[in-house]
Amino acid sequence: MSQNAYDKGRLNLPFVGISTFGKAPYVADWDAIDADVAIMGAPFDFGTQFRAGARFGPRGIREASTLFSFGHGGAYDHEDDVTYLQTDRVRMVDIGDADIVHTDTEKSHANIAYGVRKILAAGALPVVLGGDHSINIPCIDAFEEDCAKNGPIHIVQFDAHLDFVDVRHGVRFGHGNPMRRASEKPWVTGMTQLGIRNVSSTSREGYEAARAAGSDILSVRQIRRLGNDAVLALIPEGARYYVTIDIDGFDPSIAPGTGTPSHGGFAYYEVLELLAGLCRRGRVVGVDLVEVAPDYDHSGSTTTLAAQVLLNLIGRIMHAREG
Questions:
Q1: Cα(118)–Cα(27) distance, rounded to whole angstroms?
Q2: Residue environment code for 78-116, b if the CB has 16+ CB neighbours within 10 A, otherwise e
Q3: Which of 58, 130, 158, 205 has its CA 20 to 30 A from that of 179?
Q4: Per-residue b or e along 279-311, where b marks 16 or more CB atoms closer than 10 Å to that residue's CB
Q5: How would you class 212 by CB atoms within 10 Å of its CB: exposed for 0-12, middle for 13-18, buried for 19 or more?
Q6: How much is the pTM?
Q7: Are strands 153-158 and 240-246 parallel, antiparallel or unpaired?
Q8: What 3-state DSSP class applies to 306?
């Protein structure tokens, strides 16, 4: 692209304008979604057991994402020799947030599921910005009809915690429960749970229940010993994948802005390379990224990391679909 091409229209620098995700067009009418990718916020954090604040995750991630929206017509990666997210080939929109009703988990989760169903009905890839990890429960619920038509999903989770609690003091839909709830769905055929580590990551009961349900569970150290190719080989090839990324899967040295940080986590490229391999191995049909709590990181590193991971993942999903 010539320099003159960059000079046409408004410069539209990152700090200018409205903070939609990646400065994608905003679509308020959920019956008029016409896109390849639709971003939705789920600013819900009533499921947390320690530090709240992930309700501000979607807003923080959107603002951080403007850093990567210079309007160059795409994102050229010289290592891959690919221009990802070309604006004339990938139509991405931001549909705003699901309506959250304070103190009402059931209604709030229902509103999140409604938004994901609208995205799927439009034939777009749902990318949901959390919120605590309980928002994954309505996201997976929303796939029931889609899976009846197109086949089941395999969940790939990046997380410090297993999130396989069944019921604790009557709580079934908190941020420690999503993977257990997903395992109960007939349209979920299995899980690969990556990054699980350290104290509070899981109880023995939770670990054994997840293994009995067919999950492959690997810590960060185990993944490093095995290598990415061996890890990817454990994931069913040619499947439909739903990717759920808890930001605390990353090491808190680069992602301190979260409610339950756990040292010993992933570095950025470790996750990106696994995600890139996953996109080549099968079809990613849904994404959520959760547990970003901006108030615990005044540097903005965590929200920037979340936005960067998502934009790179979306680019690779769309590139894999093209080729």
A1: 12
A2: eeeeebbbbeeebbbbbbbbbebeeeebeebbbbbbebb
A3: 58
A4: bebbbbbbbbbbbbbbebbeeeebbbbbbbbbb
A5: exposed
A6: 0.95
A7: parallel
A8: helix
